[in-house]
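Notebook, bench 3.
Goal today: get a predicted structure for Phosphopantetheine adenylyltransferase from Thiohalospira halophila DSM 15071 so we can plan the truncation constructs. The sequence was checked against the plasmid map this morning, with no discrepancies at the termini. Length recorded as 159 residues. Pasting the sequence as submitted so the record is complete.
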Amino acid sequence: MPVTAVYPGTFDPITNGHAELIGRAARLFDRVIVAVAANPGKHPLFDHAERIGLAERVLADLPGVEVHGFDNLLVDYVHQCQAQVVVRGLRAVSDFEYEFQLASMNRQLAPEVETVFLTPSERNTFLSATLLREIATLGGDVSPFVHTEVVAALRQRLG
């Protein structure tokens, strides 16, 4: 039976750490849906359509990976996609408590959906989109941490 996984996030912007985890998930599951959350409450640098487009371009070469936007409850979206798994990344121990709480709530809402945690390689452990946005906003070089498409989009957005 083919297994579909959903990897949700804001992806503002998508980082090399995200791409690494998505690539690894693609080796584990038959189909991986990168679900870009609308999440306007976070006041993203890039609008929803831009974040979807960037993720599509960054992940274009990964077989079995699709990028879609969503703006509803994650477990409802997982059911809509007929997925069985939610993939979440854990960069550090500090992520664990929040991610554990989310996974536990999702299990209460949809006990048939499993959450799988993946950890990035050491070179991507410290990456966060929030930190990258701050560095880029202050004129720092983020090119080692994101795809060239993202570097170009940041330059265009921030000048």
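The helical segments are 16-28, 48-58, 74-80, 93-109, 129-137, 148-158. The beta strands are 4-9, 31-37, 65-70, 85-89, 114-118.
Flagging this for group meeting.
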